[in-house]
Every structure is written in C-alpha cells, then in structure tokens.
Amino acid sequence: MFDVQSLRRQFPALQQSRGGLVPVFLDGPGGTQVPQRVIDAMVRYLTTCNANHGGAFATSAESDAVLRGAHEAVADLLNADADEIIFGQNMTSLTFHFSRALAAAVLRPGTEVLVTRLDHDANVSPWTLAARDAGASVQFVDIHPADCTLDLDDFRRKLNKNTRIVAVGAASNAVGTINEVRTVAELAHAANACVFVDAVHYAPHGPIEVAAWGCDFLACSAYKFFGPHVGILWGTRSLLDSLPAYKVRPAPDRPPDRWMTGTQNHEGIAGVTAAVEYLAEIGERHPEHHDRFPGMRDRRLHVHAGMAAIQEYEAGLTRKLLAGFAERPRFKVWGITEPARLPQRAPTVSITLPGRSSEDLAKHLADRQIYSWSGNFYALELTECLGLEDEGGLLRLGLVHYNTAEEIDRLMQALDEIP
Questions:
Q1: HSE of 103 in the Cβ direction (CA atoms, 13 Å)?
Q2: pLDDT per residue over 320-366, tens digit each?
Q3: Are 184 and 166 in contact (CB under 8 A)?
Q4: Fewer CB under 10 Å: which end of the chain, C or N?
Q5: 0.90 exceeded by the pTM?
Q6: Has domain 4-34+311-416 been given CATH number 3.30.565.10?
Q7: What is the pLDDT of residues 242-261, one digit of tens each?
Q8: Cβ contacts of residue 399 below 8 Å, gap of 6+?
C-alpha cells in the first residue's frame, strides 16, 4: 500500500543519473533529499515576500504570515503548540544556546547533569560544557555493547537527588537504537530533573508526540526530515516563559521570539512548512493509521498518520537489509539485529568488515553510486566505547522512506564484490 515510486517522483535528486547510474542515497542520517515543493516554497518566499520581521509594508506582513505558518506546521509535526516552537541555525547551535540558559537556572556546584554514551555529541558537549561553567558535575549513562542499547539500570543508579538535567537521544544516529524516552522522562521527573531530547535522528522515521513522551525540551533538524537546513527546538511553555533568555535587549520578551536570536533563515523556514505538508500528504494516502491518533484532526492527524506509514514501510526495508547481512556473516552489524526487536531500532544499520576500513567501504560503494557515510558521525562516546574509534569507526547505511527493496539488492551486490 506504500506507493514509494510515486513519492520518489517528487524528489528531483532521485531522478538524476551519474555515470549512467541512478544514485542510491543511503546517506539520509547526514541529511535527506527534498521534494520539489520544498524547493518551490523557498523560491516563492525569496521571489514574492523576502523581507525582515515586523514591518508596516506588504512584503514584511506576508513574510510574518509565512513564519507564523511554519510555527503551526512544526507544532503539528510534534503535537505541540505553535508558540512553543523555536527556529535556529541548526540543532547544535540551538542546544549550545539553550544549554546556557537552562544551566543558569538550575545548575550550581553540587548539582549534576546526566548524558549518555549513545548520543550524538551535540547532545553531550553542550551539557558537559554548561556543567563545567556552572561548577556542576557530569555523569555518563553506559550502554550494553552487545546490542548498543542504553543501560537503563545504570541510568537508575546514576540518577539522584542532585541531578538537574538529563540529556538523551530519541534514536542513535550511529546504530539506530530507539531509546525508551518516556521511561527516562518519568524517572528523571521523579528525581526533579528536567529532560532534553535530541530527536534529530528519530524525526524522519516515526511520529513524535512531545506530551506523550513526557520530555521538557526536544530538538530536531528539518534537513533530516526532507526539509532545508533549519534547526528546531520545542519546550514546554511554562519553562520557556520562566527561563532566562540570552537575547538582544529590544527583542520581544515572549516565547518563541525571546529565544530566536537575530534574523532567521526565512526562506528555509518557509521550506520547513512545505516539508511538513509533504509528510501530511503521505498521511492522507494512509487513512488506515488515523485511528492511532485519537483527538487529532486535519494536518496534525495526517502528519502523524504519514509518519506511522513511513515507520511501517521502513521496518520492511530494515528487515530485508538485516536478513541480507545475516546471510553475509563476514560483516559485523552493530546494534539490534533480531527481527522481533525491529520496533526498538530506526532503519540505520552500521557495519564493519575485518581488515577493511569504513572509509574504504564507503569509497567502494561510492564508485558504484551508492552513497553512505563512514566514521563516528559525531557519536564519539559510542565509537570509543565500542573500541572502534582508532579503527576508523563504522560504515553507516541510512534508509529512509524513499529507499526501495531494489536498492538494497544493489547494495548487497556491491558489498559482495569486496574481496
């Protein structure tokens, strides 16, 4: 029922040919391709209403309307309120900026921050540096190396009455593990700690409901869910109202404006709305998922149904990819591999091959127009924990919903050609 070919036709990048071959884009965790409507929205903004915020003239008013619409679109994506949505340069910049404000409010000598060894460093270094500046301490939650999952028992041991901030990823950008965010949030709140979730890697793969997850803050990036390079931060309204914001003095002192420093990337933000509309179109095609989201309607319902349809389709691709590696035991798959545990992982599969560096593997695939990433992907704590950092890290194969079963066959054929 998932018509991947009709969706692929909406992506100009998927129609190109290089060296007589159509590229296979398995580089999605580093940034996805965009549908034509995203390109059109950005061009339309720059062509018709390119203006700064708050002017008395027509193009400024039209620009402000575009930006308001983007806040509403992302609120639908996250099942949140529009005035809780903050845009910025990227997730990393937003997190560094926001960590200073949160640290100023809650961190003191004797307090603690909890981060994990599974996370992208953008959800580690901002908090460790904020703790350092505040004289607070940092603890790292360990992982189970055998399947690259978070050690929740270790989290429970390290969470204590002095913990003020818990930073956790929704899904690992290196090995695909999906964390039990709601459980982490419940435990953290019981200890009077707040929870910051990095959902950058999870966002293109499944529905997000911030209230259901129970977190206090969540960050993601539009260029990972088929949009342009724009960072997104959500926070509960009461906290966004009360926390000290680092901002210029004339800027409005109300959310979300008080958190958005300087003039934003307006054309990019216009593209974000188009990306959300694309996801909503998928949901309109899949009404069988509507019942999963009682109380939602209109675009919000369609976006979540679309993400549920994507999640279901990608699970099939992941099953096929893992089955292919099960038939090729010379490749080591890192993370969850059991078919029964597929709901616990995103469709991001990282491998190693003894005697060959991940960079060599990536170059081998690139010569065949199959695009992948090699290295640590900024998940430095993880590759160090697995003993892979000095060996060049991992080869990461990142599936998204525009990938196909035929592309997996082509990947496997290419890997079989490695001596």
A1: 26
A2: 999 999 999 999 999 999 999 999 999 999 999 999 999 999 999 99
A3: yes
A4: C
A5: yes
A6: no
A7: 999 888 887 888 778 889 98
A8: 26, 28, 314, 317, 318, 321, 347, 348, 349
CB contact set of 139 (below 8 Å; sequence gap of 6+): 112, 113, 114, 115, 158
The overall average pLDDT reported for the chain is: 97
Residue 7 parent element (H or E) = helix 4-8
Which fold does the domain 41-275 belong to in CATH?
Aspartate Aminotransferase; domain 2 (3.40.640)
Q: Long-range contacts: 18-21, Cβ < 8 Å, 24+?
A: 18/369, 19/369, 21/368, 21/369
Per-residue pLDDT of 180-194, as tens digits, reads: 999 999 999 999 999
Q: Structural domain boundaries of the chain?
A: 4-34+311-416, 41-275
Q: Give CA–CA dist 281/283, Å, rounded.
A: 5
Q: Taking a C-beta distance cutoff of 8 angstroms, is the pair 272, 228 a contact?
A: yes
Tell me how far apart the alpha carbons of residues 185 and 197 are, in angstroms, rounded to a whole number: 9
Owner of token pair 């041991």: 157
